[in-house]
Design goal:
Blueprint lengths: L1 E7 L5 H14 L5 E6 L10 H14 L6 E11 L2 H14 L2 E6 L7 H6 L2 E4 L7 H19 L8
Parallel strand pairs: 1-2, 1-4, 3-4, 3-5
Helix pairs in contact: 1-5, 3-5
Length: about 160
């Protein structure tokens, strides 16, 4: 199974970039993993939130294949414990050809993206910056890989 994380907008904070890069390299030892960044939309001050979500949605939809299993990282999604997320990921490894996680822009996702999604996952009831969510998700994906392999990274 190939796993992809699609982001809207580049990661600006150099500390987050370094952390994400570290986890991407680690995850690569367990599964094919790639991050794709969709560029920020220009001149957003002239756009409403709905218009911005619609444009981002069109750009996201262009990256998806019909056979993809699409999972949105969304505040209204299902929450997992790390071990349960690992179990969920392991099942997906047997059923998904390409598992695509998406972190949207600052206003969330367009209705079309929600409609295309197979599932939604929330990392917490708390709100994090989009920059931070990227790092937290990468760490949790790595943690899930180590749990699946029975490695000592995760402690109960």
């Amino acid at each position: 199974m190939k796993t992809e994380l699609i982001l809207v907008g580049k990661t600006d904070n150099k500390h987050f970039v370094a952390g994400i890069s570290d986890y991407v390299e680690r995850i690569g030892h367990y599964m094919p993993f790639h991050i794709m960044t969709i560029p920020d939309i220009k001149n957003t001050k002239k756009l409403s939130q709905e218009q911005q979500k619609a444009i981002e949605g069109e750009l996201l939809m262009k990256q998806l294949q019909p056979s993809d299993t699409v999972v949105l990282l969304d505040e209204h999604g299902k929450e997992f414990r790390s071990t349960t997320f690992a179990e969920w990921l392991q099942k997906k490894q047997h059923t998904a050809k390409r598992l695509v996680f998406i972190i949207g822009g600052p206003y969330g996702f367009s209705p079309a993206v929600y409609e295309r999604a197979d599932e939604q996952i929330s990392l917490s009831k708390m709100t994090f910056s989009h920059q931070m969510v990227r790092l937290i998700f990468a760490e949790q994906l790595y943690r899930a890989c180590t749990i699946i392999k029975g490695e000592p990274y995760h402690h109960e």
